[in-house]
Design brief:
The protein is α+β, with helices and mostly antiparallel strands and 134 residues long. The chain is 20% helix and 32% strand. Strands 1, 2, 3, 4, 5, 6 and 7 form a 7-stranded mixed β-sheet that branches. The model has no long low-confidence stretch (mean pLDDT 93).
Length: 134
């Protein structure tokens, strides 16, 4: 499973964030979240082990709400922010067995763009993760 699918599975298991897509945010429904992948940090290697010991990918999580609703997507972003920041070393749970050492938010939830053509706010958070290979 990719990090995007693993994070989607974990966040969906929380039961409070609604629809979460991977890689694109379609025009509908209005209320949804999307996980994007972007360049992370250099992987860790371990003496005596060939290849990569831990990956350090980066993701962005974006939530959108109905027209003129700032608080709805902001509240969902806050739930995801706190849930991912609270990850302790081990499997994520919710059906994800990959070992994650940590998922570090790079800032608090914040608007990532001006409201769109349909007057919807987008609130996002960027994260760096440290994890075993999936």
């Amino acid at each position: 499973m990719s990090i995007l699918a693993e994070i989607q599975t974990y966040l969906t298991s929380l039961g409070t964030l609604g629809t979460i897509t991977i890689g694109n945010m379609p025009a509908s429904p209005d209320v949804m979240g999307t996980i994007f992948e972007y360049g992370g940090q250099s992987p860790d290697r371990q003496f005596g082990t060939s290849g990569i010991k831990y990956e350090k990918p980066a993701i962005q999580l974006v939530f959108r709400g109905v027209a003129f609703d700032y608080n709805g997507p902001r509240a969902k972003a806050e739930v995801a922010y706190r849930a991912l920041a609270a990850i302790q070393p081990g499997a994520l749970g919710g059906g994800v067995t990959t070992i994650y050492l940590q998922i570090d938010p790079q800032q608090a939830p914040h608007p990532i763009a001006l409201i769109d053509a349909n007057n919807r706010h987008k609130i996002g958070i960027n994260f760096y993760a440290t994890k075993e290979l999936s």
